[in-house]
Amino acid sequence: xxxxxxxxxxxxxxxxxxxxxxxxxxxxxxxxxxxxxxxxxxxxxxxxxxxxxxxxxxxxxxxxxxxxxxxxxxxxxxxxxxxxxxxxxxxxxxxx
Length: 96
Hints:
- By secondary structure, this protein is α+β, with helices and mostly antiparallel strands.
- The protein has three helices and four strands; from the N terminus they run E-H-E-H-H-E-E.
- It has helices spanning 25-38, 52-57, 59-68, and strands spanning 3-8, 42-47, 75-78, 81-85.
- A four-stranded mixed β-sheet has the order 2-1-3-4.
- The longest helix has 14 residues, at 25-38.
- It is globular, with a radius of gyration of 13 Å.
- The termini are far apart.
C-alpha cells in the first residue's frame, strides 16, 4: 500500500480556506487527497502549527527544515521518500 505524508506549513486548518485570501489550489489539493484515500492510498497530513511532534519525529523532514527553514514546506513524502517540496501538486497544474 502506498503512503503519502504531507508536512504542511503552519495554517489555521488543513484546507487553508480561511482568511482574507484563499489560494484556489488548496481546496483542489484536499479533494485530490480524498480521491487518493478512496483509491486505497494511506494519506497522512501534518500541519506545523498543530502537529509539531510529527515534524520532530521524521528525521528527513527535520533535516530539510534545518537546512531550508519553513520555506521548504509543504514537503510531500511517498513511502518515506521525498517527492515534492514548496509545491502543491493537483490535477491540472505542474511545477514547470
